């Protein structure tokens, strides 16, 4: 049977403020998954990035499976109940729907799933971020799968020479397109360079084998009001026709700016950290990413390895601290604060509403 990996996440409450998930919630989620191991699911691992509770689940039911989504939804509801009892901050934050209707998509949680025939050996990397948005993966996926200066395998490995296919979603117009690399790289970049709107959803080998899958939910679009950023997750397969593990994680040595951070309203550096540092502190951030590595063996998750818990990533972390200093010094000014069209989806329109009677026309 094919193996499905489902990474499903939600912020169901945190402490203090938006900084981290409470260990009691992690325990509860892990225990609820353990109870169905061997029946509904094959294996699982629970962790957190900042205030986001992350469920990594393997099973044989394919993507968008109602039983798996309902399991995740019930876990989030149960954990949100505990969060309410403890009066954690933002208890139930990402659970927008009232009743489960077969799929957690559109209900608040973020989902990245892929189904594949296991190879002789299947290295899998799960990326989880806090205080940013799904388009944050665009730069890194491009580097992994389309940039030969990152991935030398594209040049020296005949099994990668053909390139890859990228599925890009337009989150505003709700449409999708496929780009084939290397031939379409300029067109691909024309879109994914605007990550608040265009998001890479999948990457495949040109023979159709799945290589990467991301979450693309945009919370503010679902709720119609500011409810926090849709902190994203991503699953990437490595080796044997895909980029090597090292080629998959090396893009994160580049400190780029992403949208999110404080109140989901600021640009800040995207910092790769070990799980022990996956807590958002400085100005509720800076935006962070963790990566857990596994070998998938008959659906079992062998691992995890904490990929960014490594002094090799100290330099990018230091650079991120320097960038953070530069950005923070802007205070409430752009480009630290997001541009006006992005601020439309936050609490800023409420300020305009309060001041509307004090605005008058300019003289001719
Ligand atoms: P080893 O020689 O350590 O197995 O490494 C092989 C490799 O391809 C690393 O990217
Ligand atoms: P989260 O999206 O991680 O809940 O963060 C919201 C926020 O306002 C942080 O300042
Ligand atoms: Mg939160
Ligand atoms: Mg296990
Ligand atoms: Mg979060
Ligand atoms: Mg959030």
Structure, explained:
This protein is 25% helix and 27% strand. With 364 residues, the chain is of the alpha+beta class. The protein has one domain. The strands form 3 sheets. Strands 5, 6, 7, 8, 9, 10, 13, 14 and 15 form a 9-stranded mixed beta sheet that branches. Strands 2-3-1-4 form a 4-stranded antiparallel beta sheet, covered by helices on one side. Strand 14 and strand 15 form a beta hairpin. The relative contact order is 0.15. The site of one magnesium ion has 4 residues, from loops.
Rounded average pLDDT: 96
Bound molecules: 1,3-dihydroxyacetonephosphate, magnesium ion
* Fraction of residues in H or I helices: 25-40%
Straight-line distance between termini: 73 Å
Number of strand elements: 15
The coarse overall form would be globular
The overall number of domains is: 1
Subunit arrangement of the protein? single chain
Topology as H/E string?
A: EHEEHEEHHEEHEEHEHEEEEEHHH
Largest sheet: 9 strands, mixed
Structural class by secondary-structure content: alpha+beta
Spans with pLDDT under 50 lasting ≥5 residues?
Answer: none
């Amino acid at each position: 049977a094919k193996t499905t990996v489902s990474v499903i996440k939600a912020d169901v409450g945190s402490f203090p403020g938006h900084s981290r998930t409470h260990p009691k919630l992690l325990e509860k989620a892990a225990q609820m998954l353990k109870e169905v191991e061997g029946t509904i699911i094959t294996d699982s691992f629970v962790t957190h990035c900042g205030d986001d509770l992350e469920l990594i689940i393997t099973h044989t039911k394919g993507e968008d499976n109602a039983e798996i989504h309902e399991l995740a939804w019930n876990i989030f509801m149960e954990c949100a109940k505990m969060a309410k009892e403890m009066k954690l901050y933002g208890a139930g934050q990402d659970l927008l729907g009232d009743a489960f209707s077969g799929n957690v998509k559109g209900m608040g949680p973020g989902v990245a799933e892929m189904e594949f025939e296991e190879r002789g050996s299947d290295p899998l990397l799960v990326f989880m971020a806090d205080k940013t948005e799904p388009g944050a993966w665009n730069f890194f996926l491009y580097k992994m799968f389309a940039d030969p200066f990152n991935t030398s395998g594209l040049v020296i490995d005949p099994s990668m020479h053909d390139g890859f296919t990228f599925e890009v979603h337009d989150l505003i117009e709700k449409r999708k397109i496929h780009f084939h690399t290397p031939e379409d790289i300029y067109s691909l970049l024309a879109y994914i360079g605007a990550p608040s709107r265009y998001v890479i959803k999948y990457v495949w080998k040109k023979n159709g084998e799945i290589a990467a899958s991301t979450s693309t939910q945009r919370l503010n679009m679902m709720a119609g009001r500011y409810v926090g950023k849709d902190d994203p997750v991503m699953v990437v397969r490595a080796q044997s026709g895909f980029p090597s593990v090292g080629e998959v994680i090396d893009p994160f040595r580049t400190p780029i700016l992403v949208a999110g951070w404080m109140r989901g309203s600021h640009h800040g550096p995207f910092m790769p950290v070990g799980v022990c540092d996956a807590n958002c502190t400085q100005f509720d951030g800076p935006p962070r990413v963790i990566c857990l590595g596994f070998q998938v063996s008959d659906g079992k998750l062998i691992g995890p390895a904490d990929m960014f818990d490594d002094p090799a990533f100290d330099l990018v972390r230091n650079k991120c601290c320097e960038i953070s200093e530069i950005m923070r010094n802007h205070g409430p000014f752009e480009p630290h604060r997001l541009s006006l069209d992005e601020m439309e989806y936050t609490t800023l329109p409420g300020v305009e509403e309060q001041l509307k009677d004090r605005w008058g026309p300019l003289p001719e």
